[in-house]
């Protein structure tokens, strides 16, 4: 399961239409809106990261959407990636697991 917190901005005078369009999308729930600024906060649920990205692109393409940006992201594969990436980096760059390279330390 993948969750995205997305900020959507539409012209204030069209916020009702924007909310209706967003709520009609699969996996999208509107959590907050500010009619004066046209800001809408949504949560999108998707099965895969690819589906999540496709959903964000679909939101960006809706009529009258000025801006739609992901501000929070949770993906279920996180635990798998965290255990795999350090070992892959160790193999590729000769780094020791758990040791911070000198170039990342403050001078």
């Amino acid at each position: 399961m993948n969750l995205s917190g997305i900020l959507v901005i539409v012209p204030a005078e069209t916020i009702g239409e924007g909310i209706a369009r967003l709520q009609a999308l699969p996996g999208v729930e509107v959590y907050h809106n500010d009619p004066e600024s046209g800001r809408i906060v949504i949560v999108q649920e998707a099965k895969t990261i690819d589906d999540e990205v496709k959903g964000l692109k679909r939101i960006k393409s809706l009529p009258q959407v000025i801006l739609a940006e992901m501000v929070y992201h949770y993906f279920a594969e996180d635990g798998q990636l965290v255990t795999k990436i350090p070992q892959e980096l160790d193999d590729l760059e000769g780094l020791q697991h758990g040791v911070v390279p000198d170039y990342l330390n403050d001078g």
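The CA atoms of residues 53 and 63 lie 18 Å apart. The chain has two domains: 2-76, 78-107.
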